Structure prediction request, 70 residues.
Amino acid sequence: GVPTANKRSYGRDIIESIRRGDAGGMSFAFKAPAGSDDWEMRDGDPLRIVKLAKLFDVSVVTEEPALLGW
Prediction:
């Protein structure tokens, strides 16, 4: 669906930045407890599969997101 924002200006500002193309990446801060993730190689690149995590932060970023292609 179409994103909506609360009445706070920063929510509206983020949505407008995404619509304009100024921001389009995401960055996440999390901790995966021992045994809750696996690593494998996919197309020559390491891939981490996280099954359980404690999420600390989610941010919209303008340059160099932590994850590409999501």
Q: What stands out?
A: Helices lie at 9-20. The radius of gyration is 15 Å.
